[in-house]
Amino acid sequence: MATKDLRINKQIRAREVFVIDADGNQKGIMSVYDAVAFADEQGLDLVEVSPNARPPVCKILDYGKYRYEQEKRMREAKKNQNIIKMKEIRMQPKIEKHDLETKSKFIGDFLDEGNKVKVSIRFRGRELAHTELGKVVLDKILAQLTENGVGYNLDRGAVMEGRMMSMIVSPSKSNAGSTKKKN
């Protein structure tokens, strides 16, 4: 629950609440008025930390300090999370050998950075009658990734989507964890 959703002092709607004091000691079930008065005596706030419990659980604490700690914890968690981006490489089934090697090098670089890669082959005109050529190109890409020592997982094999055949490749766990973000 976000700190903005918490009810404090007179915003608490329940008649009775289970109170925990500033030291973490359980004070038991009290009426809301008594609990707010008890918190005021100590110069602190009554904060409803678990509104879905029966009766709701309220803690006596300094609300400003509590909110600051929660926001600090959220910023820290956000900083440490790993965001995976989806990159896309497009090509045609009539791709030349050198171009295929270049594209597979780019795919390897994206995987090393920790990104997922969608490899798409676009069919135009009569090429649509020969979709097996697209499958061959995708297999060559996977073979070159293996040759170059790039660790990958095949999330989704070759699938036709309209006039495009695509597959999704993600970095292997050992590969994604060892790389650092590049700017």
Spatial gap, N to C terminus: 34 Å
Our Rg estimate from Cα atoms comes to 29 Å
The multimeric state of the shown protein is: single chain
User: Low-confidence stretches at least 5 residues in length (pLDDT < 50)?
Assistant: 176-183
Show the helix and strand layout:
Blueprint: E1 16-20, E2 26-31, H1 32-41, E3 45-50, E4 57-61, H2 63-80, E5 86-91, H3 97-112, E6 116-122, H4 132-147, E7 152-161, E8 164-171, H5 173-178
Parallel strand pairs: 1-4, 5-6
Antiparallel strand pairs: 1-2, 3-4, 6-8, 7-8
Helix pairs in contact: 3-4
Describe the protein.
With 183 residues, the chain is α/β, with parallel strands linked by helices. The chain folds into two domains: 3-79, Ubiquitin-like (UB roll), CATH 3.10.20.80; 86-178, 2-Layer Sandwich (Translation Initiation Factor IF3). 36% of the residues lie in helices and 29% in strands. It contains five helices and eight strands; from the N terminus they run E-E-H-E-E-H-E-H-E-H-E-E-H. It has helices spanning 32-41, 63-80, 97-112, 132-147, 173-178, and strands spanning 16-20, 26-31, 45-50, 57-61, 86-91, 116-122, 152-161, 164-171. The strands form two sheets. Strands 2-1-4-3 form a four-stranded mixed β-sheet. Strands 5-6-8-7 form a four-stranded mixed β-sheet. Helix 3 packs across helix 4 (132-147). The chain starts with 15 loop residues before the first strand and ends in a 5-residue tail after the last helix. Mean pLDDT is 83; it is low at 176-183.
